[in-house]
Amino acid sequence: MENLHHIVVVGGGAGGLELVTSLGNKLGKKRKARITLVDSGLTHVWKPLLHEVASGSLDASANEINYRAHARKHHYEFQLGRMSGLDRQNKQVVIAPFHDIDGTEVVPERHIQYDTLVIAVGSTANDFGTPGAQDNCLFLDSLEQARRFHNLMLNAFLRKNHEALQDEKHTLNISIIGAGATGVELAAELRLASRELPVYGMNHLQPSDVSISVIEAANRILPALPGRLSSAATRELEHQRIKVLTGQPVSEVHADSVVMQDGTKLASDMTIWAAGIKAPAFLAELDGLEVNKGNQLAVEQTLQTTQDADIYAFGDCAACPQPDSDRPVPPRAQAAHQQADALFKTLCNRLEGREAVPFLYNDHGSLINFSRYTTVGNLMGNLSGRSMFIEGKVARLFYVSLYRMHQVALHGFFRTGIIWLMDKISRAMQPRLKLH
């Protein structure tokens, strides 16, 4: 193999996959550099869609991107595995042994040589050490977890439908801890599921038998977003008969209940944790790289890590400073998308001996989708800097366009158009809810 500059990207989430796609199309195709993506899974699904996979309103199989197939089309290599360590002196990424579902070792520990390393491993749920959370809560950090949730949800509906048929107590209590975007959107998707499943045979369980509660420690839901957006979201949730409990920190989670800080106990058959994120713990042990309290890698505005000029990090796993602000870039999909664009330019410049591109975050606003009911959000004005509140079909159009922009970055306009048409056909022919 010819001696090309080797760029290794660890993490095939939204930002990581967009970055290797751009690098492969420009540098890999022309043999200007060797590009490798490392990820612990075989496929990619846009993380903001995981709550739809969990509820069944989205079929993950139809929206997955196979890394190996995508790598072949876009001139990069793919390595299956989980990063477990780093040897900065020898410039090697340590990949943990890969095991099959029976625990048999398929591939032993490996070391991948790099010239430039990019870490984009995203984030995981932060339960803040709440007693019982790890054992009794469901999480939506990965596609596997979303699929597991979906299966458990279908089984819970089936069980309660049978209990209703037997004239037994059959209320299904679902609690969502955390009222950020994921928690709020998941609540709306679950309400849709409670109304759709009776159409497909579970007609003894009525939507009113499914009690959905959203629990938020702050004094309002969507605490990181503007107050008007929070108020509109609260009204919509209550309109959909979803209980909104604010100012209610959770102190403990049991198998069948959630205990509030004031001692109030809320019955819960299914409990989902959506109350905060943190970077993966292994980042704090990467050969001296600097991290903050949330395990995020400390980076310069150029996305270079503070301790190593050959290592970059971006997305949820990185704490990127901004000028005139004491707060780092927020962990949002639009930030990862913008950082991937900036880092693409920086890495191309790096090969040509030119300067890095400082990253400047441009907040385009926020959109919250309430399944098929409505969408609300605020858009930031490019000229005035003020936000504009939108809702309904216009907001829904903007919301859908976010995912289409991600697809365009991965496939180009023409293929994205074909995918959009196939999605339309699939929705017309398939049930409104995934039933298995």
TrEMBL record:
TM regions (residue ranges): none
Domain FAD/NAD(P)-binding: 6-340
GO MF, one example: NADH dehydrogenase activity
Keywords assigned: FAD, Flavoprotein, NAD, Oxidoreductase
Family, per entry: Belongs to the NADH dehydrogenase family.
Record's protein name: FAD-dependent oxidoreductase
